[in-house]
Amino acid sequence: MESSSSRFLCTCLSSMFFFLISNTIPLSFSSPTHHTNSDLSFSSTAEKLIRGFNLFPKDPINTLESDSLLVAGNIVEKKLTFPSLVAPGSSVEELGHHAGYYSLPRSKAARMFYFFFESRNRKDDPVVIWLTGGPGCSSELALFYENGPFQLTKNLSLVWNDYGWDKASNIIFVDQPTGTGFSYTSDESDIRHDEEGVSNDLYDFLQAFFKEHPQFTKNDFYITGESYAGHYIPALASRVHQGNKAKEGIHINLKGFAIGNGLTNPEIQYQAYTDYALDRGLIQKADYNSINKLLPSCKQAIEDCGTEGGETCVTSLYVCNKIFNRIMNIAGDVNYYDIRKKCVGDLCYDFSEMEEFLNKKTVRDALGVGDLDFVSCSSTVYSAMMEDWMRNLEAGIPALLEDGIKVLVYAGEEDLICNWLGNSRWVQAMEWSGQKEFGASGAVPFLVDGAEAGTLKSHGPLAFLKVYEAGHMVPMDQPKAALTMLRSWMQGKLTMTKNGDNVSPK
Fold it and tell me: Which listed residue (125, 201, 415, 477) is catalytic?
């Protein structure tokens, strides 16, 4: 039961990468405090399991004793070159690769680490920021295994990714919230607990980023990510839009945001688990009827979270996760991120090469991180965000749609944990001026190189895309389709034609 009860907690993996600025000597602080009672060992159980995945170090890190180089609101960045991966004749400037730290002004001592890769195509391509979920998992996971400029091979070398999203955008990968990946602080109070704190930090970072790179301020801007970023993304989009309206600083040319296999509206998405599992043959009808008896208590628990907050939200996570537990107990060793596969190992995927690569002394020396170990996922951040899990982040999206902000929700059809069915249902149920027309629109094929790669529903600024032959991480499973999707969506071509013909982006 321990293993299954923790599976949902690991919903969000994604991207990560490297090259750091200042030398830092980390000092671990004591283990984070977890919610505990006789019936609720959810957080501690999750941490125990995830430590078994080798995603956490033995102790939480990324909290330092001191940082003499920290200046609030300051950004420090350098251009990067990779000795094992440089095109013949290319200079550092021509590659357009950057890495840096930003000292967060709404913190006592927090520094946010990021990578920035200029487009391999045109410098006037949109600026895209990618956010990984977790909460507390580094965006370098996506950078190496999904949509970054490079991929990591079995022998720990880097090769170009033919379908990196830097082929259609100037892309930023951020380690956030504070304590994630190479981001760190010297004060525990800087660890965030909700979307307000997370989105404020990201907004401040974007202000500093565009001040550092004024040549990109006129470019279109898009927010993207997957899994628990289904929380981060709508919150950041609302914060950017609010800042633009209030003329708080540099105008950020926000055009839209895309959520991949996200957790956005837990009430609707948890209710879809049994329907998806039955349809895909993971459970039988008798199992379906039995597990569905848990749905009313889950719904009530989420409603209580919405009105009372606090520990009530942690309890709702425990109550609702019983649904997922029951399904997985029946399904056995199926990979809950991709039900076509068996779950081999605790995490169902092997990302150990990245851990090994980033913790090599030569790489650490090149990054300038000193003794700061790379952490794929932070137990400290995870525990701090427990009360945020069951919040409904769909609530802020209608106002953005009404103001013309484009929204794309996409999902690989083979993912159980943040499945396409639950995502399609919250998109369908969302109340906005185009809800009726969106619901009436039929699904049309999404074509890539003439082959059907998914199905699309869209109306106005809202689009939902189910991607075939893909699990939780669409850019990893279907890289060409994912790049095609991104490019065509940003160009306004991921739409249904007036006569309902197939969608075949250019």
Answer: 415
* Catalytic, out of 287, 388, 472, 477: 472
For 479, phi then psi, to 5°, come to -60, -40
Structure tokens at 369: 């991180």
- Residue corresponding to tokens 């950078």: 143
Please tell me the total number of residues recorded for the chain in this structure. Answer: 506
Residue 390's nearest CA partner among 323, 305, 319, 318 is 305
Per-10-residue mean pLDDT, the chain, length 506: 37 31 24 32 38 33 48 72 54 70 88 92 97 92 94 88 97 94 87 93 97 98 98 99 98 99 98 99 99 99 96 96 97 96 81 83 67 81 92 98 99 98 99 98 95 97 99 98 98 71 52
Q: State CA 400 to chain mean position distance.
A: 20
CA distance 330 to 283: 7
The model's pTM: 0.86
Does any domain span residue 170? yes
DSSP assigned state of 400: H
Compute the distance between CA of residue 18 and CA of residue 363 in angstroms, rounded to an integer: 9
Q: Tell me, what CATH number does 55's domain have?
A: 3.40.50.1820
The C-alpha atoms of residue 376 and residue 346 are separated, in whole angstroms, by 15
> Residue 462 in contact with residue 259, Cβ under 8 Å?
no
286 in any annotated domain: no
Determine whether 415 is an active site residue: yes
How far is Cα 58 from Cα 379, in angstroms, rounded to an integer?
Answer: 10
Of the candidates 43, 44, 183, 227, the residue annotated as catalytic is 227
Q: How far apart are CA 485 and CA 480, in angstroms?
A: 8
**Cβ distance 101 to 22 under 8 Å?**
yes
* Residue 91 is a catalytic residue: no
For residue 291, being part of any structural domain is answered with: no
Structural domain for 439, as ranges: 10-266+354-490
